[in-house]
Amino acid sequence: MAAGGEDGDAIIEMGALPPRWADVQDEVIELLEGIQRNMKRLDPMHAKHVLPGFEDDAVKKREEREIEGLTQEITRGFQTCQRHIKRIEAMVKQEKQKPKGISRGEETMAHNLRISMATKVGDVSAIFRKKQSNYLKSMCFPLQNLKKAIVSKLTNARNAHPERHGRLRRPCIFPHGQEPIY
Question: Domain of 39?
C-alpha cells in the first residue's frame, strides 16, 4: 500500500471508493437518530398534556402547538428518510447508464441496503405510530368515560326514583358484551 516516494513522502494507493449510496445509509441513520431523540422529547409532553390540570387555555394551546410542531418534525424526518432510500435506486440506475456500469454484486448490495434501511425506518415508524395512537386514545377516553359516568348516574337516579321520572328504565343488554355508543 504505502511506498516511499523520491522525495521521502509516503505514497498511499487508493483502492476503489465505496459506492455513492453508502453515504445515503449514513444520512438515513443520522435522520433516524434525530427522529428517536424527538420521540423521546415528545413522550413527556404527551404525558403532561393528558393530565388534568388547572392551567389556563393559553398554556394548553401552547403545549398543543409544541406537540404538533414536534410531531410534524418527526413526520418530515420519516418522509426525508423515504426520499433518501429512493435515491439509492436512482443512483443504481445512473450507474447502469455509465459505460463502466455496475457489477451484479454492487447492485445486490444496493438492493439489500434499501431493504435494510426501509426496515429500520419502518420499525421506528411503527413505534411512533403506536405512541401517537396511545396518546390520541388517552385524549379521547377521558371524554368517553365522563359520558358513560353521566349516563350511568342519570339511569341510576331514574331507577331509584321511578315516581319522579315516569316509568322504570332498565339498562339495555347488548349482544356479546358490546357497549352502547353515546
Answer: 18-137
Q: What is the pTM of this model?
A: 0.67
The total number of structural domains in the chain stands at 1
Q: 166 by DSSP, 3-state: which? A: coil
Q: Does some domain include residue 174?
A: no
User: Above pLDDT 70, what percent of the chain?
Assistant: 66
Element (H, E) at 3: strand 2-4
Contacts of residue 3, defined as CB under 8 A and 6 or more positions apart, other chains included, come to 10, 11
Q: What pairs with residue 10 in β-bridges? A: 4
Q: What are 170-180's pLDDT values in tens digits?
A: 454 545 555 54
**14 SS3 class:** coil
* Res 138: pLDDT: 79
